[in-house]
Specification:
Elements (H helix, E strand, L loop, with lengths): L1 H17 L9 H5 L10 H20 L3 E2 L9 E4 L2 E4 L11 E4 L2 H12 L5 H7 L24 H17 L32 H19 L5 E6 L14 H8 L8 H7 E6 L2 H10 L1 H5 L3 H13 L1 H7 L8 E2 L4 E2 L1 H9 L10 E5 L2 E4 L8 E4 H4 L7 H4 L5 E5 L4 E5 L10 H16 L7 E3 H10 L6 H8 L3 E3 H10 L21 H9 L6 E2 L5 E2 L11 H6 L19
Parallel strand pairs: 11-12
Antiparallel strand pairs: 1-3, 2-3, 4-6, 5-6, 7-8, 9-10, 12-13, 14-15, 16-17
Helix pairs in contact: 1-3, 4-9, 6-7, 6-14, 7-10, 7-12, 7-14, 12-13, 17-18
Pfam families: MINDY-3_4_CD
Family: Belongs to the MINDY deubiquitinase family. FAM188 subfamily.
Protein name: Deubiquitinating enzyme MINDY-3/4 conserved domain-containing protein
């Protein structure tokens, strides 16, 4: 019985030595209680406590088992300096993951990768003063607020995932995920929630946490998530009477300044999680840190470390350039792509583009949850591939020359295609796969023959020779031929006349709808009757962006034109 009592005391000492001191809102004896029946402040108690703490330390050391580097390593083991350190299951949650400092070399590599070797104080200030926080305005309560000019690429991507959860998985947000809990099924989630204005703060925070977790695990190839935190007072967030968590963190960050890799080395700590459940719980526990002024930068660092710095550099076409671009400190396309698809590639087309001589450019390699559209495509500067244009959910990060924002639909069926549209998508995807011009819209003769074989198009010899006469094939000319080619030959022309592909422009469509006498008409008695006139088609840069995804889209709005700059 005495041995059992000692074991219990020892277990208590281990727990006390591994957990922070309790808050002292009550007298110490009320909080700490007694050990083995001895009063808290007695000399015997203090001596006994020291003995137990020393024994606890020895027992913790004994739980670390060192084995040969060649021994198999299980899920609960870590490699460290050529040895394998096995953790014990009884440790608190925060000790179940590897929490460590970066080395000086890692910190320097990370800092230079993000900001370059010469970065202005203005850019550093932009990235060190942007939290991940929701708007306090009821009309935009589901939106994240941007204060600084640089981190919009990070915020917009997180925002896109947050909208996915708020709109399509609102019922899931009230549940705590179990094992592999951040992944969600698309079954029975086609009906979105429209009651956005009544979202509670708890629901929004859960959406934010799940979004962050999903992105980080995507960066970690769905095997791990690295969470970057700060070694500052208030990192382990505690509630004090009359003081909010935000105030505790803000006060702790007052004197913090990140101007070099050395500053980063002093305060940055990273935790590696292989369980989505524990990662979710940890993110939720320290969410005030991500809502603080360091939040956007910490999340970017988390994503980069989840991917791995070496893999990030191998993803990129030019790893010598900083990820945050000068002179304005914008997030590069590589950052946005990393958060969207888990790889820091610089391009938005599908697959890889072979430049010859063993050189190639890397694009998007897989389907994505939320997509991407850009105004630059309408200006023929790039070509967004089908992976980003047709994401799983109808939500897109939208890029312009200087800003990122988000476009979304409440109805997933906006991506549905009829037979002719599906055929158009199939042909265009095959054409783009052969386009080595970076989205210029032309392919080689050899690539063209591959396209018509893959899509089962049977062109008459005269049309084939005409298209190939210039030595390359332009998409617009090829597409016109397809529109005039009978369906039996693989084209889109329906000889029965029952299905005619839409060839009109949006302006022509509106003219047809309004008709020549849209302003007024007469009934059979000759009296004038009012005819409702459709609103005229409106134009803004966003419209050009939308039409890169839906070429025949007609856009209208009330008030000022929507801005994407």
């Amino acid at each position: 019985m005495a041995d059992r009592g000692e074991d219990e005391d020892l277990e208590m000492a281990i727990r006390m030595s591994m957990t922070p001191e309790p808050k002292r809102n009550k007298p110490r004896d009320e909080v700490a209680g007694v050990v083995s029946g001895l009063p808290e402040d007695s000399p015997e108690s203090k001596t006994r406590r020291r003995e137990l703490m020393a024994a606890a330390a020895e027992k913790r050391m004994a739980t670390v088992v060192r084995v040969s580097p060649l021994s198999p390593v299980g899920n609960k083991e870590l490699k460290k300096g050529g040895e394998v350190v096995r953790r014990v299951d009884e440790l608190p949650l925060r000790d179940q993951s590897l929490c460590k400092e970066l080395s000086a070399e890692e910190a320097n590599k990370l800092f230079v990768m993000v900001f370059g070797s010469q970065v202005s104080k203005d850019i550093l200030a932009q990235w060190c003063n942007q939290g991940i926080r929701f708007s306090s305005d009821p009309e935009t309560s589901m939106g994240l607020v941007q204060h600084e000019g640089g981190p919009c690429g990070v915020l917009a991507t997180i925002q896109a995932f947050v909208l996915k959860y708020i709109i399509f998985f609102s019922n899931e947000l009230s549940r705590i995920p179990q094992n592999r809990g951040l992944g969600v099924s698309s079954k029975s989630h086609s009906v979105p929630s429209y009651n956005i204005s009544s979202l509670t703060e708890d629901v929004k925070v859960r959406a934010l946490v799940r979004s962050m977790g999903e992105i980080l695990f995507s960066c970690g190839s769905n095997k791990r998530a690295v969470i970057a935190t700060l070694s500052i007072p208030g990192n382990d967030i505690q509630r004090f009477e009359g003081i909010s968590e935000d105030e505790v963190v803000a006060s702790s960050l007052k004197a913090l300044s990140i101007e070099s890799s050395l500053d980063l080395l002093k305060v940055l700590r990273v935790e590696t999680h292989t369980s989505e459940t524990t990662a979710f719980q940890r993110l939720e526990a320290i969410i005030p840190l991500f809502q603080s002024r360091m939040g956007a930068l910490l999340f970017l660092i988390s994503a980069l470390l989840s991917r791995g710095l070496d893999l990030v550099q191998s993803d990129r076409d030019d790893p010598s350039l900083p990820l945050v671009t000068a002179p304005f400190g914008h997030a590069s396309q590589e950052i946005v792509n990393l958060l969207l698809c888990g790889q820091a590639v610089a391009n938005v087309f599908d697959g890889r583009m072979d430049l010859g001589g063993g050189m190639f450019l890397k694009g998007i390699s897989r389907n994505v949850e939320v997509g991407f559209l850009t105004l630059l495509e309408s200006l023929n500067f790039c070509k967004v591939g089908q992976f980003l244009k047709t994401p799983k959910w109808p939500i897109w990060v939208v890029g312009s020359e200087s800003h990122y924002t988000v476009l979304f639909a409440l109805d997933p069926t906006v991506q549905n295609e009829n037979e002719l549209e599906g055929r158009e998508t199939q042909i265009r995807k095959a054409f783009d796969a052969q386009d080595q011009s970076g989205g210029g819209g032309f392919i080689s003769v050899e690539g063209f023959h591959q396209v018509i074989r893959e899509t089962n198009i049977k062109l008459p010899q005269v049309k084939l020779d005409n298209l190939c006469s210039a030595g390359f094939i332009v998409w617009s000319e090829f597409w016109q031929v397809i529109l005039d080619l009978d369906q039996s030959l693989g084209g889109l022309k329906d000889s029965s006349g029952l299905m005619v592909p839409p060839r009109w422009t949006p302006e022509e469509f509106m003219a047809d709808v309004q008709g020549p006498s849209a302003s007024g008409a007469s009934d059979s008695t000759g009296k004038d009757i009012e005819v409702s006139k459709p609103e005229p088609v409106q134009h803004a840069p966003l419209v050009d962006c939308v039409r890169t995804r839906w070429p025949r889209a007609v856009c209208n709005w009330s008030g000022d034109p929507p801005s994407i700059v």
